[in-house]
Amino acid sequence: MFKKILIANRGEIALRIIRTCKEMGVKSVAVYSKADEESLHVRFADEAVCIGPAASNESYLKISNIIAAAEITNADAIHPGYGFLSENSKFSKICEEHNIKFIGASPDMIDKMGDKATAKATMKAAGVPCIPGSDGIIENFEECEKIALEAGYPVMLKATAGGGGKGMRAVWKEEDLKKAWEDARQEAMACFGNDGMYLEKLIEEPRHIEIQIVGDSTGRACHLSERDCSIQRRHQKLTEETPSPFMTTKLRNAMGMAAVKASESIKYEGAGTIEFLVDKHRNFFFMEMNTRIQVEHPITEQVIDFDLIREQILVAAGVPISGKHYIPKLHSIECRINAEDPYNDFRPSPGKITVLHSPGGHGVRLDTHVYAGYTIPPNYDSMIAKLITTAQTREEAISKMKRALDEFVIEGIKTTIPFHRQLMDHPDYIAGNYTTAFMDSWIMEAPEEE
């Protein structure tokens, strides 16, 4: 087992990993930028090292600084959390070269799955259902036109190096393809320095359903059931739940086995997620693989009583998985609480938290790094907490979430708590009748007069 793990991340995920390290008797090292000096992950780690100024590219993305922090603290492993360097093959390789275990995917796995066109080709070869479209990166617009006609409109253009909805364009008719092609490539180059594009048939009325998997060094993998992530805004997830209200036993078995096949075909090691689009007829198609822990991993932990961070560490240390596939026994919902104003186009709202009252009670979990008096810096992602409720049934989990949101008080900044509270009362959400297009027609009720 590792003696000391450095967490190359910040905020709630860094604190989450530190807690599991302490429970396992493993020393933890926090790294932090100057903007995060007062964050709880710095306070609760066994050691903490400042790695640079507020800007991510000078701190949390600065590989040399993180490796130096690991060396001066004698850390024998690095956990990257999610985001930042978690899916950076160069970082994974440099850790390997410095005899520091990267608790995540190997450089080869990250490269195979990080490029969406390559990932799709790999999954097709493994027999995993894929969305019709281009077999790889499209060479030119003429080829794009031909593939779009073969797939049939509507189609979706996607940046091969994309993420977070950047470099994506839906095209409903042929005459709109040229402009979408040019706009998507321009945005992809600006965001990722890579304007490579591929094309897929646009799946109408889709659900975004992902399967949590864990693989070990022997090449075996198991699945830990699904999460429904269809409530999204501009391709950014807002809330997730497990099990999916759209799921059937037959579909879960088929998707779970496809995810295991995908993982074992590349001998994937560690925790990862196979993401699928599922159409209204419950046909499912591979979308992408995330070679890291996910933001929404707590709901899986809640419904199967399983510590995914602990499993990541054990697998990285060479402990084989049980090989058992897990089926949820409970129902769990996660609401991402962001420092954003939902009444003003979700505009970021950094600043000082003056009052904070956390919800509690049976079946309520809150993952956060903030507290009263903490100042949220403007330099990073706006998520400040994850509120999770778990119960015997979906109806009870929703009722519990309503109560927990009513108890959750954060003053001094704007948050997405009012959005989630209204969502929990929406008849289509209550009925489980939603797709990834749900937010396109969302009209929030006006805020109450103060």
Strands, helices and their partners?
Blueprint lengths: L3 E4 L3 H13 L3 E7 L6 H5 L2 E6 L10 H10 L4 E3 L9 H9 L3 E2 L4 H8 L1 H10 L15 H11 L3 E5 L8 E4 L5 H16 L4 E5 L5 E9 L5 E13 L2 E7 L6 H17 L4 E9 L5 E7 L6 H8 L3 H9 L14 E8 L1 E2 L5 E2 L2 E2 L2 E3 L6 E5 L6 E2 L6 E9 L2 H14 L1 E3 L5 H7 L3 H4 L20
Parallel strand pairs: 1-2, 1-4, 2-3, 4-5
Antiparallel strand pairs: 6-7, 6-8, 9-10, 9-12, 10-11, 11-14, 12-13, 14-21, 15-16, 17-20, 18-22, 19-21
Question: What report would you give on this structure?
Answer:
It is globular and about 60 Å long. The strands form six sheets. Strands 13-12-9-10-11-14-21-19 form an eight-stranded antiparallel β-sheet, with helices on both faces. Strands 3-2-1-4-5 form a five-stranded parallel β-sheet. A three-stranded antiparallel β-sheet has the order 7-6-8, covered by helices on one side. The model has no long low-confidence stretch (mean pLDDT 95). The chain folds into three domains: 100 residues, 3-Layer(aba) Sandwich (Rossmann fold); 70 residues, 2-Layer Sandwich (Dna Ligase, domain 1), CATH 3.30.1490; 235 residues, D-amino Acid Aminotransferase, Chain A, domain 1 (2-Layer Sandwich). Strand 12 and strand 13 form a beta hairpin. Helix 4 packs antiparallel against helix 5 and helix 12 packs antiparallel against helix 13. The chain is an alpha+beta fold. It has 14 helices and 22 strands.
